[in-house]
């Protein structure tokens, strides 16, 4: 088939795929892998590009952190942290919101997926102690983590892409060219979205208390997890680092933890126990999605989306508004990494043609694309990971249940960022 026919076929399959992902959450991994297979079979993605389309850095980060988190959970540290939070908060509402804020703080400096994997076990422990569903608290953790990913250069791959393209360093996200940077804009967005959480959980005023604190049996997994976080932050400052360095770090700390546990206990079953704790369903889902997005990028659909902006208007505010809100909608269904990578040169060209400060469009793009991923369960890797954790606990979350929280949360954060970026950079 010719290129235009192929593009149309790919677009139709893509739309059907994402509708199926939304309406059939129990078989998302099967849907994503099947769709990826179809795209390769019809020639949308050349076979020799499959390996390079998958973000192995993210896959290794998830697998490595999942294994380390298993050791972390077994050490009883999450149970102790849950007890401390329960002691310090008067009711369920404050416990959930405290966890989401805690996750947000970590996520500003660590990958969103790793943050969810670290904090979600605490929410699970709190829920078990209080005999309540963990669904709402894990969703709150996931969307709060995704929100803060835009706050710093190291918080998310989209921020790294922007920093590399625009020549920004770590401190430029705090103050840039004498103006307030993205960090403070995101924090004000976080305040607005936290008020939304207060409203959502306004009736969850059940008092909480514990009779005795959990006892940590081994502090080494906590050191491993802390070491993972510190190393992820440190390597972000090094230029020209290996492409998969974050994944290597997470896997290396896992290997150290497992080998140390084996030497300590002489129990070879630790290798299989850790292997079983890695959520391969979530890894398959993400792998399939990377190939799906790589396919629509390869045939030019993502590029067409970018070119569409150029022909619509010559009014700065209209173009800015379109960049932000179309990015919100598109990133709810399209992985924001290839989208950001494609749109950065597009918005740069638009800014030159319109004689506008490109930072207005850069930060608007980052606001819409990064925060917009929170709209749907499949819009961000952090959301997929959070729902994968819940599924392992026996909770299958419907898209409607997720979006009841995520939509108002996202709209509050994006609207705040949309207004502030315009006021500061227009």
Q: Which characteristics define this entry?
A:
single chain, 426 residues, mainly alpha, two-stranded antiparallel ribbon, 20 helices, 2 strands
Describe this structure in words.
The chain is mainly alpha-helical. It is 73% helix and 1% strand. It has a two-stranded antiparallel ribbon. A hairpin with a 2-residue loop joins β1 (175-176) and β2 (179-180). α4 packs parallel to α7 (112-130) and α4 (56-74) runs parallel beside α12 (245-265). The longest helix is centred in the last third of the chain and has 27 residues, at 399-425. The N and C termini lie far apart (45 Å).
Overall helicity: over 70%
Number of helices: 20
Spatially, the strands of the biggest sheet line up as: 1-2
The major sheet is characterized as:
2 strands, antiparallel
Give the tally of β-strands: 2
What is the C-alpha radius of gyration, as a whole number of Å? Answer: 21 Å
Task: Quote the beta fraction.
Answer: under 5%
Poorly predicted runs of 5 or more residues: none
Distance N to C terminus = 45 Å
- Write down the domain tally: 1
The run of helices and strands is: HHHHHHHHHEEHHHHHHHHHHH
Overall pLDDT confidence: 85
């Amino acid at each position: 088939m010719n290129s235009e026919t192929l593009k149309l076929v790919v677009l139709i399959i893509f739309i059907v795929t994402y509708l199926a992902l939304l309406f059939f959450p129990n078989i998302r991994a099967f849907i994503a892998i099947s769709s990826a297979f179809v795209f390769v079979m019809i020639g949308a993605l050349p076979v020799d590009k499959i390996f390079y389309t998958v973000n192995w850095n993210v896959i290794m980060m998830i697998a490595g952190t999942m294994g380390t988190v298993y050791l972390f959970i077994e050490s009883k540290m999450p149970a102790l942290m849950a007890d401390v939070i329960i002691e310090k908060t008067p009711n369920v509402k404050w416990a959930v919101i405290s966890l989401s804020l805690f996750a947000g703080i970590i996520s500003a400096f660590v990958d969103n997926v790793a943050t969810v994997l670290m904090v979600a076990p605490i929410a699970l422990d709190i829920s078990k102690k209080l005999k309540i569903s963990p669904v709402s608290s894990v969703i709150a953790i996931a969307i709060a983590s995704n929100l803060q990913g835009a706050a710093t250069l190291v918080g998310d791959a989209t921020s790294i892409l922007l920093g590399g393209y625009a020549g920004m360093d770590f401190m430029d996200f705090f103050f840039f060219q004498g103006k307030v940077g993205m960090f403070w804009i995101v924090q004000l967005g976080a305040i607005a979205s936290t008020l939304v959480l207060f409203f959502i959980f306004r009736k969850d005023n059940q008092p909480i208390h514990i009779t005795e604190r959990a006892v940590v049996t081994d502090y080494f997994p906590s050191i491993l997890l802390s070491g993972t976080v510190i190393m992820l932050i440190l390597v972000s400052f090094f230029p020209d680092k290996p492409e998969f360095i974050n994944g290597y770090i997470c896997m290396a700390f896992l290997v150290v933890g497992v080998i140390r546990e084996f030497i300590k206990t002489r129990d070879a079953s630790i290798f299989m126990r850790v292997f079983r704790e890695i959520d391969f369903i979530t890894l398959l889902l993400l792998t399939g999605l990377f190939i799906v997005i790589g396919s629509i990028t390869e045939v030019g659909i993502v590029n067409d989306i970018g070119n569409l902006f150029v022909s619509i208007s010559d009014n700065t505010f209209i173009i800015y508004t379109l960049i932000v809100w179309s990015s919100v909608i598109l990133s709810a269904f399209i992985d924001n990494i290839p989208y950001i990578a494609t749109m950065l040169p597009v918005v740069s060209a638009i800014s030159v043609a319109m004689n506008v400060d490109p930072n207005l469009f850069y930060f608007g793009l980052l606001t819409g694309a990064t925060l917009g991923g929170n709209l749907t369960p499949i819009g961000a890797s952090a959301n997929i990971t959070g729902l994968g954790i819940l599924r392992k606990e026996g909770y299958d979350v419907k898209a409607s249940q997720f979006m009841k929280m995520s939509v108002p949360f996202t709209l509050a954060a994006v609207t705040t960022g949309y207004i502030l970026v315009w006021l500061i950079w227009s």
